[in-house]
Amino acid sequence: MSAPAAAKGTLYLVPTPLDHGCNTQSPLEDVLPLGTIKAAAALTHWISENAKSTRAFLKRVDALVPLAQPIQAQQITELPREVHKKGDHGGAARFDARPLLAPALQGQNVGLISEAGMPAVADPGSSVVRAAHDLGITVVPLVGPVSILLALAASGLNGQNFAFVGYLPQDAAARTQRIRELEALAHKTGQTQLFIETPYRNPAVWQALLQTLRPATRLAVAQGLTLTDGRVQARAVSAWRQARTDDNALGRAPAVFAIGP
To answer: Average of pLDDT values for 131-155?
Structure first.
């Protein structure tokens, strides 16, 4: 008679603070509930966007709740770099993450973690979640900050109908065309359009938005969410132009942009 199969572990989606890459950090207990911190401390197996940032996060967790194993003993597997560059959520680029979940099939709980915010939302990880569902592994999202939703809530734009569209094209002409498409959709449907950008391209994106958008379109930008120096500003494009906001005012801090009627 064969031995019964081991119960499968759970895949936990572990959110992290939004201060990755920022000059200052928020106290961990100010941005994550104690339940999330305790759940992270109990895990010993991780699927990570970046192992170094995961270890830094676990060090912050350990200062509040002792880890189940020392950081050096944590099993951290990084998602392939190609997943970061091309995405892992569809088409020919779809990544098979099932091998990464072998510990969960053997009964170990596994944490999925990105560098900032909720994994699989504006970050890699959807392939891991999809694989977990296909393998019959329970998926549990833990509570924590999601920059897209925080920015939307604070923008004053339509929170009943919205879309996150990722990154704008790098090419200037293609970027301008995309901005016009998103603006037309926003005015036609009332749907808020949210997007992000690599921080070093903030000035170029900001200039393109102010030059391309209609004067009456509302433009919001959120930076430093959950940090003491965080800010969310939203006004009509005409008002932004009158304010003569410096293209470099956004600096190199991560930003979430939103446009709507």
So the answer is: 97
Angstrom distance (rounded) from CA 116 to CA 125: 12
Strands 10-14 and 45-48, bridge-based pairing: unpaired
pLDDT tens string 169-221: 999 999 999 999 999 999 999 999 999 988 888 989 999 999 999 999 999 99
Domains of the chain: 10-141 (3.40.1010.10), 147-260 (3.30.950.10)
**Residues 145, 27 contacting (CB under 8 angstroms):** no
* Digit-coded pLDDT (tens) for 26-67: 899 999 999 999 999 999 999 999 999 999 999 999 999 999
Please state, in angstroms and as integers, the Cα–Cα distance from residue 143 to each residue in 18, 34, 50, 117, 151, following that order: 13, 10, 20, 10, 17
Percentage of the chain beyond pLDDT 70 is 92
DSSP 235: E
| Closest among 223, 194, 243, 210 to 22, alpha carbons compared | 223
pTM, rounded to two decimals: 0.90
Reference 218, options 182, 255, 244; nearest CA is: 182
